[in-house]
Amino acid sequence: MENEIFRYCCITQDIGNLRLISVSINGLQGMFLFDTGAQITCIRDSFFHNASGRLSEVTLKGGGSSGNAALFETGELDSISIAGFTERNVTVGIIPDETMDYVFGAVVAFFLDRPNNSQDKIQADGILGWDVISAYRWEYDCDQKKIVISNERSYDSALNLSWDVFPIIDVKLNGTKAKMAFDSGHTETILAPSAKDAVMDLNPVTDNTVGFDGESGENAYCAKEVMIEITCEKIVLHDVVMYDRQLHGISNYKIAGLLGADLLEGKSWIIDFPSGEVRII
């Protein structure tokens, strides 16, 4: 039935603070990064063709962590299945294998202290983006390493989640009310200039970034410690970078920064866009 409530469980593969979940594309199984910062679901080129995807004439222009523009092909899939539910007729971005391997290899090297060219590779076949994530309630259990996906709705929502290019969460930053973008595919939290009044003891640093749009290095600042409060949960983050410019992809100058996957380290959480809430447990 169309309005029937469902709950499906999916075991995750965790790499540092990042989550990979099992996704079936046209019946072909792969591991996809759970990424709230990706506006649409993307898939590596070879996996797309092995899954008999259909190329589209539309080209996707997207930005990444490095602030550069990159062009990607798009394609159509008959179905994307996760655990027990299926999305049909899905448009996806197509990422070249070498780009996916390099960026994900850098992530693995960062978290697991392996060289980028290690033979013991952990491969990501794609990125599960906000187009799918935003339609459901996602509950992650840190102890059991599993995500429950459902179409249930919260009757006591915190009403702290909205969207403006990125998911936007209402937080307190060092006790000051703020709005911050949220990108679960970004390894670390970064701050924008609008957060400067709420952050003390900033020290100059050089920061290097690797993204699907290439690499970049620039001068920045580092805050030794910041406290993020979401609902009643307080998370202390250390050595948080602040850029002296607006963050890439975020046009609203009032956004205080980009919350990354480090926010979720060692935590259970709920992301429920239809109910308008994020909870850290």
Straight-line distance between termini: 32 Å
Shape: globular
Order of helices and strands: EEEEHEEEHEHEEEEEEEEEEEE
> Which structural class is indicated by helix and strand composition?
mainly beta
What does this structure look like?
- By secondary structure, this protein is mostly beta strands.
- Helices cover 9% and strands 51% of the residues.
- The chain has 3 helices and 20 strands.
- The chain has a 6-stranded mixed beta barrel with strand order 2-3-8-4-7-6.
- The longest helix has 16 residues, at 97-112.
- It is globular.
- The model is unreliable at 114-120 (pLDDT under 50).
Write the layout of secondary structure elements.
Elements: E1 7-15, E2 18-25, E3 28-34, E4 42-44, H1 45-50, E5 54-63, E6 69-82, E7 85-95, H2 97-112, E8 126-128, H3 130-133, E9 137-141, E10 146-150, E11 161-164, E12 166-173, E13 176-182, E14 190-191, E15 202-211, E16 214-230, E17 233-242, E18 257-259, E19 269-272, E20 277-280
Could you give a short description of this structure?
The protein has 281 residues and is mainly beta. Helices cover 9% and strands 51% of the residues. The longest helix has 16 residues, at 97-112.
Main features:
281 residues; mainly beta; six-stranded mixed β-barrel; globular
